[in-house]
TrEMBL record:
This is Thioredoxin reductase (NADPH). SUPFAM superfamilies: FAD/NAD(P)-binding domain. It holds the Pfam family Pyr_redox_2. The keyword Zinc-finger does not apply. The lineage of its organism: Bacteria, Bacillati, Mycoplasmatota, Mollicutes, Anaeroplasmatales. It comes from Anaeroplasma bactoclasticum. Keywords: Disulfide bond, FAD, Flavoprotein, Oxidoreductase, Redox-active center. Signal peptide: none annotated. PROSITE patterns: PYRIDINE_REDOX_2 (PS00573).
């Protein structure tokens, strides 16, 4: 949407194709406190504001799944599950999806004991015991939001320390409702009478059962780049872009969490969108 904003303000015709929901992963964040200009704002409100901004400028939106992109002459052809679109240039900003634990019966209990999104499922666990899997900043943000209304929050971290921002680590360690298991790995789920009852972990070589009413998994992401395998990617399937965010194919740009880069944050994603849009505008000058 940041890329669309810059292109629309340059009087270009813009189509945004979205497979799921507007705003990507940040839309599911219950609280954003590291975006300039806002002391605190929900991801839903932030993305809604940006959507309203580009809609007012005339942005077109289609909710479809992109299957492939190919070049035909001076045009890029985008094939979706419903239609085919042509444009002079394409910006890929498909982000990443939540990484899963890939344990037995996981699919069965997603949304019914296994969650990824606090904004979506947090309210189901008021006054109940929950576990958060992961120890990075996203996991700590989830834990801090949950601890306000749950009975307890247990963090399962595979490392020997929490790796989130120091200010969040401090809040977590000071909260009496939070317990942390370091050096721990989830081995499986405790299911009784087809109900989620907890998790089995391996903590420093010792197997333990952790009873809980639900878990929130926050162990990183996987790039949503499968339709673009014709482009150069790194070993983890993130799309490689140069300093101008142009991919290995001229006229196709990449922005956000699907790009190969060291730091993935909301602010770096918006920066990528800006760079990609300006690069695309420079590319389009060849057709004037």
């Amino acid at each position: 949407m940041t890329a669309a904003l810059y292109l629309l303000r340059a009087n270009k015709k813009v189509l945004v194709i979205e497979q799921e929901s507007i705003g990507g992963q940040i839309a599911s964040s219950p609280r954003v406190e590291n975006y300039p200009g806002y002391k605190s704002i929900s991801g839903t409100e932030l993305t809604s504001n940006l959507y309203d901004q580009i809609e007012e400028l005339g942005c077109s939106y289609e909710f479809e799944e992109v299957l492939s992109i190919k070049t035909e002459g001076d045009y890029k052809v985008v094939v979706t599950d419903y239609n085919t679109y042509q444009g002079r240039t394409v910006i890929i900003a498909t982000g990443a999806k939540y990484r899963r634990l890939n344990l037995d019966r996981e699919e069965e209990f997603i949304g019914n004991g296994i969650s990824f999104c606090v904004a979506c499922d947090g309210a189901f666990y008021n006054d109940r015991d929950v576990c958060v899997i992961g120890g990075g900043n996203s996991a700590l943000t989830i834990a801090l939001d949950l601890v306000n209304n749950t009975k307890s929050v247990t963090i399962i971290q595979d490392l020997e320390k929490l790796t989130g921002e120091p200010i969040n680590v401090e809040k977590i360690l000071k909260n009496p409702k939070v317990n942390v298991h370091y050096g721990s790995k989830v081995l499986g789920y405790i299911i009784e009478n087809d109900e989620f009852k907890g998790i089995k972990i391996l903590e420093h070589g010792i197997e333990k059962n952790i009873p809980c009413d639900g878990i929130f998994v926050s162990i990183g992401t996987i790039a949503n780049t499968k339709p673009f395998e014709n482009l150069a990617m790194d070993d983890y399937k993130y799309i490689i872009g140069n300093d101008c965010n142009e991919t290995s194919e001229e006229g196709i740009y990449v922005a956000g969490d699907c790009k190969s880069k060291r730091i993935r944050q909301l602010t770096t994603a918006t920066s990528d969108g800006t760079i990609a849009a300006i690069s695309a505008l420079n590319y389009l000058k060849k057709f004037d």
